[in-house]
Amino acid sequence: MELKDYYAILGVERTDDTKAIKTAYRRLARKYHPDVSSEKDAETKFKEIAEAYEVLKDKERREEYDTLWQHRNDPRFNEYSSSGPAYSDAGSAGQEDFSDFFSSVFGQQSRQARQPRPERGQDIETEVAVFLEEAQRGETRTIQFSLPVRNGFGMIVSEIPKTLKVKIPAGIGDGERIRLKGQGGPGSGGGPAGDLYLVIRIAPHPLFDVTGNDLEVVLPLAPWEAALGTKVSVPTLQDSILLTIPPGTQAGQRLRVKGKGLAGKQNQGDLYAVVKIVMPPRPDEKSEALWQQLADAGSAFDARRGWGKE
């Protein structure tokens, strides 16, 4: 009786885990399935692949097979392989095209395989876009997603649309995940459903940039406001505040407003107003004369002192 090398047929190592074996089987099944394959002898190859996977995916069968492989050079190998605990009943469970070796050693287990073992459903991950304000205050959202339905070869054959109402907790950050137990792919053989993971993606805000729990907002100032100082209204995520601009404020300077950032799990972030000096339109004669007076008064000031020098 021929003892086939099931590991070689699937192209896996003897130390590989069940996940690697399953991945290899799916890849080869897609390539050699008679309904879709153009490979030569695809049907024969597919049967070999299916037989190998039928043994190696099952812990008990795999252990029995590994024991047989260790004794393959023993003089009494045929006697040993036909006297294991799982022989007879060849051709059960739709496996009548498997080799004589499989029927002799694993036929009994094939019959038992008619009753599929419970398997947990696949976990599903989907992204949910929320606005910054929604992430801060918390929000109940209705989401729509699809659960993939796979055939025995792991290929997606259809999708089941699903709608859920979910609570987005206040203070959640970009990239964080929400787990919804039992809302993932359906189980098989009476197994439980998988879980659904919502990955939060915070949409870009038209005013604020986010760095951790801190917010940044660009603050436009006229040259005289930066030079003389003033008070300006600055928007925050919740309301507006009156911010004092000190005299001599520079372009690019960051003015901190404590506690007006994002509410985090550990602490409250801050708001930073980043100064941008905005020049007025092309001046008229009167404005140009005033600018010239300012230039003459500040003639000793060199804005580029040390610029470009090592």
Describe what this molecule looks like in 3D.
- InterPro entries: DnaJ_C, DnaJ_domain, DnaJ_domain_CS, HSP40/DnaJ_pept-bd, J_dom_sf.
- It comes from Tatumella terrea.
- Residues 5-69 form the J domain.
- GO terms for molecular function: DNA binding.
- It is a single chain.
- The chain has 310 residues and is α+β, with helices and mostly antiparallel strands.
- It has helices at residues 6-10, 18-32, 42-56, 59-70, 77-81, 100-112, 132-137, 223-228, 285-297; strands spanning 124-130, 139-150, 156-168, 177-180, 196-202, 208-211, 214-221, 230-235, 240-245, 254-257, 271-277.
- Strands 6-7-11-10 form a 4-stranded mixed β-sheet.
- Strand 6 and strand 7 (214-221) form a beta hairpin.
- Helix 2 packs antiparallel against helix 3 (42-56).
- The protein is elongated, with a radius of gyration of 35 Å.
- The model is unreliable at 83-96 and 109-114 (pLDDT under 50).
Describe this protein with a few key phrases.
310 residues, alpha+beta, three-stranded mixed β-sheet, 9 helices
Short synopsis of the structure:
The chain has a 4-stranded mixed beta sheet. 29% of the residues lie in helices and 25% in strands.
Poorly predicted segments: 83-96, 109-114
- What would you call the shape? elongated
Largest sheet: 4 strands, mixed
Q: Number of helical segments?
A: 9
Question: How far apart, in Å, are the first and last alpha carbons?
Answer: 84 Å
Structural class: alpha+beta
Strands ordered across the widest β-sheet:
6-7-11-10
H-E string: HHHHHHEHEEEEEEHEEEEH
Helix fraction, binned, reads: 25-40%
* Mean pLDDT over all positions: 83
Rg, Cα atoms, Å: 35 Å
